[in-house]
Design a protein that fits this description.
17% strand, Aminoglycoside 3'-phosphotransferase, Chain: A, domain 2, alpha+beta, binds adenosine-5'-diphosphate, 9 helices, two-stranded antiparallel ribbon, 294 residues, Phosphorylase Kinase, domain 1
Length: 294
Amino acid sequence: MNSALSSAILEQINRATGLNVRHCSIQSIGGGCINQAFQLKTDKTTFFVKTNRADRLGMFVRESGGLQLLTASNTLRTPNVIGYGSAEGTAYLIMENIPMGGNGRAETAGRQLALLHRKKADRFGSTADNFIGSTPQINQSCDSWASFWQQHRLGFQLILAKEKGYHGRLQALGEQLQLQLPAFLDHAPTPSLLHGDLWSGNLDYTTKGEPIIYDPAVYYGDRETDLAMTELFGGFSDRFYAAYCEEWPLAPGYSVRKTLYNLYHILNHLNLFGSGYEQQAIAMMQRLLAEVSA
Ligand code: ADP
């Protein structure tokens, strides 16, 4: 981060917080998949800053909106947003810095996730589209969960995949699966407030042991989609799921729907990171179609 950019960020921090900080030190930190991440240390406090190309500012605008919705739910802790903007050809998002990596209780995280999911909307979707990774995520409001999932999740990723040259078997199976969605999604879910991208890298514990979630792709949808994603890249502990289910048990059939919900993320990984995910997506579709023909 060059000094003109850090000065612009510092100015924004001063305006938003009323602090009058003149100097800071910047430390680059690893871990982000999509953006660059930094700690900006001042003599008063430390901030966490994510940056990307200026044309990606929209991602930070939506991430900020999602974090604010999660914060307002008063359930799982999320970082407070200080602001966002662009300068020197770079978009940035400024948050409070939260020291993480502590030992926390998985059951607290599980119970708080269920409480987050108790925050409801009237319809599926949201007031604005956002991003899943750097892929647009369509949140156009809808009364039917099966239609929402068909059109804005599965269908949307399959169209992107076609545009990227993934034809043949993937598309044929995808078409069959879309026709079967009402049969898979007949469990009458309600529109719950979701983190939307809840893999294990987006939940941690503060040094005081408090669970914290970040980097969301928020919308209102079936709560099982969040739980499914926690299981996608190495699940959470059994205590996490037990505490969640004690707070709010799952409907029968979750283990099948889990594959359908995670297919969205695998297709997104195919579209973001390439053909290494194509076989996995095909195998998931075959497993799902076998369920309805059984
Ligand atoms: P990306 O959007 O690039 O995936 P993340 O938002 O996941 O980036 O952040 C990258 C890493 O930075 C996270 O894995 C987490 O360890 C850490 N992190 C995220 N938000 C904060 C924060 N507010 N304070 C301190 N560390 C954070």
